[in-house]
Amino acid sequence: MAEDQKKVSAAARLFDVRRVIGGLFVVYGVIVTLLGIFDNQSEIDKAQGVRINLWMGLAMLALGLFFLLWLRLSPPKPPETKDAEDQ
Predict the structure, then answer these.
(1) Which of 3, 37, 52, 64 might form a disulfide with 47, Cβ 3.0–4.6 angstroms?
(2) Where are the alpha helices (DSSP H) in 1-87?
(3) Does 33 fall in a domain?
(4) How much is the pTM?
(5) Pick from 4, 22, 25: nearest CA to 80
(6) Residue 9 within any structural domain of the chain
(7) What is the extent of the structural domain holding 26?
(8) What residue ranges are annotated as transmembrane (predicted)?
(9) Are 17 and 62 in contact (CB under 8 A)?
(10) Does 58 reside within a domain?
């Protein structure tokens, strides 16, 4: 029975929404930040001189890291399962 509890607990941690959202924001944040670093002058001029890709990429990275830190500091509690003996 303890092995079943471990499987349920691992599945609850794996499919936590904070992990998915944080991971996606970190991946997209890295991509957009790299695009912002290597923007050419015409793309910067279109945004009225603001390196919007760089700033939005950094913001996405910060948000993604916040979600992953939140997950680390407050892990999900495993769902309670009833033992077959209690029924």
Answers:
(1) 52
(2) 2-14, 17-37, 41-46, 52-73
(3) yes
(4) 0.74
(5) 4
(6) no
(7) 16-73
(8) 20-38, 50-71
(9) no
(10) yes
